[in-house]
Amino acid sequence: MKVLHVIPSVSPVRGGPSEVALNLVKMLRTIGVDAEIATTNDNGPDDILDVPLNQKVEYKGVPVWFMPRFSPPIKEFLFSADFSNWLWQHIRDYDILDNHYLFSYASTCAGAIARLQGVPYTVRTMGQLAPWALTQSRLKKRLYSLLIEKHNLNQAAAIHCTSVGEVEDVRNFGIQTPTINLPLGVPIPPTLTEAKQKLHHIYGIPMETPIILFLSRLHEKKRPDLLLHALSKLKAQNYDFHLILAGSGEANYVNYLINLVSSLGLTTQTSLPGFVVGEDKNLLLQGSDMFALPSFSENFGIAVAEAMAVGLPVIITPEVQIAPEITASSAGMIIEGEVDTLAAAIAQLLTYPKLREQLGTNGKSLVSNRYSWSAVAQNLTSSYSAIIKGKLLPEFIVDSSAKV
Which long-range contacts (CB under 8 A, 24 or more apart) does 381-387 make? Predict the structure, then answer.
């Protein structure tokens, strides 16, 4: 079986989707699937990756075909004429395509060429059909959907969703294509010795001060500003804490957050290390005391799962679509996205270390039992096989409401 994963970018600065694609393909190859990635050399809005183009190279342990994107990019659309030409010539080298992303050139182009050449394909919507996501650039998305995207989704062999909530978003968008409901996997990082001591030392934080971690893209969707307002209330009540706001974003929004930190009087209690990867990221996760992501919309929330994987209690909103599983496992606190409710949840975890420990332990168990890349890859391979052979999708992962 030969599978091509198509994604607009695998740059780390594009966040969770890039990491998911790389980890998924790596695990598929581990279990014997000949999987590759086709993408562009995008490295964020102002940069490109320094990689060989129009040839297969090894990138982070995965075979990847990089094509030059058109510069400057039109947000995340990432047009690439070379990508179209390469795909037209090579698509029949693969048994099936797995398209990541909507409203972007690579996935749209791949779906169209796959249909023309009779190659089956699946689509990962990645939360882009959630109500909040559809309100962003509403008119453009409505026109794009009418002309292109709905046809692309309706003609797919299956749509890969990562939660029941994402399946509902697909159905509410008017798509009846069968859905594969599989969560994402989370790699378990190596344990760092004395992580808490090291993190407190690096940031100059007293050992007795609990660390609250926000680790995600700095974007209005993730609502770091709401977190800052909640912490401002707690500061007024004399709670002891230090916030690490880790991530990158557009300059205007980052500057807005920096000014907000100052205006709320949180400068000495907040650190903004920027974009972090590798051991620096692991240190943040393993050295902090709790994780907060009051997002407007997350189809899965890979950063949330990463936090649970190392035993961090999490505070999230219901719009993070793995919230029901976290509730069922008592692995975190699910709160409405309001200043008072977020402040109350943080205050509770600051006050009761034993509660933090219990939620963290439950979160580790949830990740170990549910979010294993090996299990995800095995189940996805079963779906690929069924699609290629023209059979029904396995019952244990197909949405029963789908019309097959």
Answer: 381/1, 381/28, 381/31, 381/33, 383/122, 383/158, 383/180, 384/1, 384/3, 384/33, 384/95, 384/96, 384/98, 384/122, 385/1, 387/96, 387/120, 387/122, 387/157, 387/158
As a whole number of angstroms, the distance between CA 353 and CA 289 comes to 9
DSSP string, 214-267: EES--SGGG-HHHHHHHHHHHHHTT---EEEEE----HHHHHHHHHHHHHTT-G
Residue 155 φ/ψ, nearest 5 degrees: -95, 0
| pLDDT tens digit sequence for 13-62 | 887 889 899 999 999 999 999 999 999 999 988 899 999 999 999 999 99
Distance CA 233, CA 223 (A): 16
Q: Which domains does the chain have, with CATH numbers?
A: 2-185+372-388 (3.40.50.2000), 195-370 (3.40.50.2000)
**Claim: this prediction has a pTM higher than 0.90:** no
Which residues contact residue 111 at a Cβ distance below 8 angstroms, ignoring those fewer than 6 apart? 97, 99, 121, 123, 152, 155, 156
- C-alpha angle with apex 337: 366 to 280, nearest 5 degrees? 55
Closest-CA residue to 316 (of 349, 287, 284) = 349
Q: Write the burial class of residue 379 (CB in 10 Å: 0-12 exposed, 13-18 middle, 19+ buried).
A: middle
What whole-number distance in Å separates Cα of residue 170 and Cα of residue 176?
A: 8
